[in-house]
Structure formats: C-alpha cells, structure tokens
Amino acid sequence: MEGLSWSASGRDIVRDVDLEVRPGETLGLIGPNGSGKSSLLRCLAGIRPASAGAVRYDGQDIRGWSARRIARHTAFVEQATEAETDLRLGDVVALGRMPFRGRWRGPDRTDREVVDAALARLGLTGLRNRAWRTLSGGERQRAHIARALAQRPRCILLDEPTNHLDVRHQYELMDLLAGTDRTVLVALHDLSLAARYCDRLVLMHRGSLVASGPPGTVLTPGRLRGVFGIDAETGHDRLGNLTVACRGVARDPA
C-alpha cells in the first residue's frame, strides 16, 4: 500500500496508508469500530477502488486487473453474512475454484481434491451435503474460510473471521492461519488473540495507521487508552504469550 486512501460521501475513511506486508507474514489489523479496517481490506481485495494511492502485489499496481486475476492472487473472507442460498456447504466451498476454471468447464479431479482438502482442514467433511440455510453462523464462517483455502491464493485477507466461532474454533482457525505458508492479513477485535498469533500488528485509528510492529511494541497501555479508550495492562501467560487485560473504561482517554 502506497499512500492508500478511500473516501465516501466526502468523508475520509482510509487516510494515506503506507504499508508493506511481507511474504509469508501473518499481519494483524486492529483498531476500534470505524477505524477503517474493513474498508482497507476491501481496497486490498480490489472491491473498492482507492481514492488515492496504490495497491501493489509484487510491485504491480492492481488497477486494471480483472476480478479473476485478483482472485488468483488473493482470497477475501468478509464478515459473516446472512445471505440465503439453495447451495450445499460443499458447493459454496467449491466456488473457490472458479478463478481457475473456464466458463464452460466443470470441476476436474484437481478441483475436487482441493475442495476435499479444504473441507478437511476446517473440520467440515461431514457437513458438505448440508443445505446452507440449515447451517449455524459458525459453520457458515468456517465454510467461507474453506472456500478461501480452496482458491489456493498467495495472500488471504480476512475481516473478523473469528466472529460467530466458539472458543475452540477460534483457536483452531488462528492456528491454521499462523501455520500456513500463505501471506495473511487479518482484522481482529480480540487483542490477546492478535498478540498471540500475529507476527506483526498494525493499529488503525480514524482511518490512519498509527502504529506498526511486533505485538509487544504496539499494544502499550498508552495506546490502548488513547485509541480504544480503555485502562488495560499487558502481561504474559505461563506459555510466554502476550496477553491484554482490560481493567475498565478509561476516565480520561487521550
């Protein structure tokens, strides 16, 4: 991202963001509601054209790229939606193979193997024939993530992927993302989860990037007070993972 900005209705939502995401890195995008995280991800996914600046993959500006070309490089998992469809769960996951298929070609052996592997990775093999409308929010979210894996992208963008997931599946998902060799950019609200699994954190506030670095250097009590408006302290659990404990709402946020 080079000087990336996006505006809507005369209001700057993302302001002049400069950021390079390293190959194979798990980068956590954090910030309060309305800080521009989702809009930034949509610009990176090519869904929203930037008002200014550029998005580059391997040095190539994505302006002018087709949706199919973008989808061969990156997969985007939005926050869970309630859209209804007559498709089965397995059919939704198989949509991840569309960027690699001709208009009239059906799924081949490779497509089926990739979809099978994605379903297995998310523990969904036994649900592949379930109708979409019968699934829980957590099952739908895991299916969307399996679809992204089926794309076999070099980069995965995820907007609050742990929403609707129970605690076990939150940790399983973050284990999977942190353990993949793909480049991952994930927006998260759970600061302890972000600190535990992300190589680097990017903190956004009012559309701007205000801090970037290892979790311990970004999640300071001063920034938590100034950006999130909370009194909090950081520490480490018995395994050495960074944790964030909120004591309450700050009475005098910066």
UniProtKB/TrEMBL annotation:
Keywords: ATP-binding, Nucleotide-binding, Transport. One of its GO terms (molecular function) is ATP binding. The keyword ATP-binding applies. It comes from the Bacteria. Residues 1-231 form the ABC transporter domain. It holds the Pfam family ABC_tran. Gene3D superfamilies: P-loop containing nucleotide triphosphate hydrolases (3.40.50.300). This is ABC transporter ATP-binding protein.
